Amino acid sequence: MTKVALVVGGGRSLGEYLSKHMAKEGYDVAVADINYENALKVSEEIKKTTRQKSIAIGADATDEEQVKNMVNEVVEKLGRIDLLIYNAGVAKAAKITDFELETFNWCINVNLTGYFLCAKEVSKVMIEKGIPGCIIQINSKSGKVGSKHNAGYSAAKFGGVGLTQSLALDLAEHNIRVHSLMLGNLLDSDMFESLIPQYAKKLGIKESEVKQYYIDKVPLKRGCTFEDVANVLTFYASDKASYLTGQSINITGGQVMH
């Protein structure tokens, strides 16, 4: 029996890496993304480079009907869901006095509400089919410590930790485990790259100096890589972590230790 992973936000950057990584780990992979073309590209590459099955789905994780349809399509085409990776995320930086309510709501919807909706629908499938599954949210160190000029993102990520612990308690009786991965700065991710102009303005430094500024804050003196995330995720999704649930795991190079 081949396990199936559903990667929400799997069409580019870290999500693309994790989709391809789980295929290499022997999972059939459903790549879901709000941009269907990106999801399709990743899915086709998985089929070309591995022996695993893969499908692409265009879905907005904040829309309940689209999430239900997405989960139904995965079950219909791949038969089951053993692992949900919720990787959809957005951020926009501004001081609280200039932070628009629309932006705040957008951050909450994508980073938190979408996670809730996907976990809700996937857990129904796992329970119905008796699957001892795993749900993993890609979170951030901003879910452990506040982040200057990032009120919407940090609030949503803190919420993700509480939601993860609550889901873990709800689903323990079904042998479904739930975790959040608290990532350090993914300096090579599309999201970080997009925020560099805003961070340069916030810090009063040149855009070319932003990455080094964040590296200098890390005890291990480097950014978080996609491989770092994949290595930890692989363990927590595996049977080797069968006694672990409800954890928020730091992948921060020592920058956050609690």
Automatic annotation (TrEMBL):
Membrane-traversing stretches: none
UniProt keyword list: Lipid metabolism, Steroid metabolism
UniProt xrefs under InterPro entries: NAD(P)-bd_dom_sf, Sc_DH/Rdtase_CS, SDR, SDR_fam
Single biological process term from Gene Ontology: monocarboxylic acid metabolic process
Keyword Lipid metabolism among UniProt keywords: yes
Keyword Chloroplast: no
Family: Belongs to the short-chain dehydrogenases/reductases (SDR) family.
Name this polypeptide is given: Sorbitol-6-phosphate 2-dehydrogenase
Species annotation: Fonticella tunisiensis
Lineage, uppermost ranks: Bacteria, Bacillati, Bacillota, Clostridia, Eubacteriales
